[in-house]
């Protein structure tokens, strides 16, 4: 035994040395790059600070503060960002990199007719557009029939093979048997947009499979419509949801729930999910329960807005559909109850790169201030998604930074004017002034 262990140690030691030597040969300079960023102002995730500058060292922020007080070490490169506001990289709360807008191809046809290779190829372009739009992190809530393609997509981004945001992925997502889609004739079995389960054994197995293959989050559909024309109904029993959450939690992963009915939302909340996605029919009562249990709402107002337009609503010209008015009421109830808000638009239903649409609608049509949604999409989402290393501009955090023209704390429209993007200290979009 002693000999074995000794030999083992030697082998490990040699491997480490080799690895170290190899890594060293590939990176001729071991000194991390120092960059001083000089914008007109810094929004640090909470407040705007005119005249501040930021020092980046390698992939992290080293210092932030008034430009004239910031240390400028020898050898630091200066990047002037005149007239721009520097802010933490935005965090998308609800995306589907493997989907593209439903007015291009219906969801059913994407799931049934598009090959996984095609969907992944599209997803690489979606990831690039998301990053270019200033979103340096995205919570991607389900591949919608593309199996575990998000695992490889995330790896490709992490390995620097393709540009894209840092991803938190949900892989296949979980639905109750018979309660999702696509549905064709009852005689035809077709692949589903998520993994179907019923009963304790299948639930435990699916949760472990998905987490085992790389899911950062488990997503469950707590309710859904049984046919294209019927309303949503709760799909899982309380016991099933409880077990699903307990199983994920014991593996250290949170559960998020798609739910729009009060009863689906109530069961998911009682089970201990962290966020409810959509919540369109949420009542004062269920929002109060969410608030009590610390469950956040990710309202995805942009999804309903887009789908209503795909169905013929000509915004500003034809009367507002019932769905839109109803959503505005439920959002008011959520605000009144004091439910925490995750900011995410269900992007994929509409075009990737157009992520800001959710923030714009929250400001223009739901009474939020630009500062509220900006905090939400930076420090707020970081907190809700357990990401203490980002969402703010502060020393030691990741250098995920974006520069926009104008003041986004006053005008949400400024977030459309992304001029410069850095992720982990690497610049992905250059300001025109440079
Ligand atoms: Zn979604």
UniProtKB/TrEMBL annotation:
Keyword Kinase carried by entry: no
Superkingdom, natural source: Bacteria
Keywords, ordered alphabetically: Signal
Pfam families: Amidohydro_1
Leader sequence segment: 1-25
GO MF terms held by the record: hydrolase activity, acting on carbon-nitrogen (but not peptide) bonds
KW Signal (keyword) present: yes
InterPro entries assigned to the protein according to its UniProt record, in alphabetical order: Amidohydro-rel, Metal-dep_hydrolase_composite, Metal_Hydrolase, Metallo-dep_Hydrolase, OTAase-like
Listed name of the protein: Amidohydrolase
Source species of the chain: Solirubrum puertoriconensis
């Amino acid at each position: 035994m002693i000999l074995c262990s000794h030999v083992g140690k030697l082998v490990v030691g040699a491997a480490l040395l080799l690895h170290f030597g190899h890594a060293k040969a590939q990176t001729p300079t071991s000194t991390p790059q120092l960059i001083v960023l000089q914008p007109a102002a810094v929004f640090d995730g909470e407040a705007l600070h005119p005249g501040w500058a930021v020092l980046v060292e390698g992939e992290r922020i080293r210092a932030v503060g008034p430009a004239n007080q910031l240390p400028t070490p020898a050898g630091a490169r200066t990047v002037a960002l005149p007239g721009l506001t520097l802010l933490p990289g935005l965090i998308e709360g609800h995306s589907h990199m493997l989907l593209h807008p439903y007015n291009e191809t219906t969801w059913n046809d994407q799931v049934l007719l598009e090959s996984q290779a095609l969907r992944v190829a599209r997803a690489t372009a979606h990831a690039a557009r998301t990053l270019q739009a200033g979103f340096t992190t995205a919570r991607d809530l389900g591949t919608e029939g593309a199996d575990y393609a998000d695992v490889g997509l995330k790896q490709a981004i992490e390995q620097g093979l393709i540009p894209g945001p840092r991803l938190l992925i949900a892989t296949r997502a979980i639905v109750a048997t018979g309660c999702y889609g696509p549905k064709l004739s009852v005689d035809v079995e077709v692949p589903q947009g998520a993994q179907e389960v019923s009963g304790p054994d299948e639930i435990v197995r699916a949760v472990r499979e998905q987490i085992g293959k790389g899911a950062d989050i488990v997503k469950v559909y707590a309710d859904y419509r049984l046919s294209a024309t019927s309303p949503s109904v709760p799909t899982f029993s309380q016991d099933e949801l409880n077990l699903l959450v307990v199983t994920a939690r014991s593996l250290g992963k949170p559960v998020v729930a798609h739910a729009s009915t009060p009863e689906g939302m109530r069961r998911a909340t009682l089970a201990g999910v962290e966020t409810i996605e959509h919540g369109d029919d949420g009542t004062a009562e269920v929002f109060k329960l969410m608030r009590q249990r610390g469950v956040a709402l990710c309202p995805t107002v942009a999804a309903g807005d887009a789908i209503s337009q795909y169905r013929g609503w000509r915004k500003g010209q034809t009367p507002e559909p019932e769905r839109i008015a109803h959503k505005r009421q439920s959002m008011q109830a959520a605000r009144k109850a004091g439910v925490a808000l995750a900011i995410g638009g269900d992007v994929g239903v509409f075009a990737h790169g157009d992520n800001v649409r959710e923030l714009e609608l929250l400001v223009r049509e739901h009474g939020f201030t630009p500062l509220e949604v900006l905090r939400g999409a930076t420090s707020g989402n970081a907190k809700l998604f357990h990401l203490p290393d980002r969402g703010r501009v502060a020393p030691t955090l990741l250098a995920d930074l974006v520069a926009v023209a104008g003041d986004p704390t006053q005008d949400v429209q400024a977030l459309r004017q992304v001029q410069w993007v850095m992720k982990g200290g690497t610049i992905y979009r250059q300001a025109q002034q440079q």
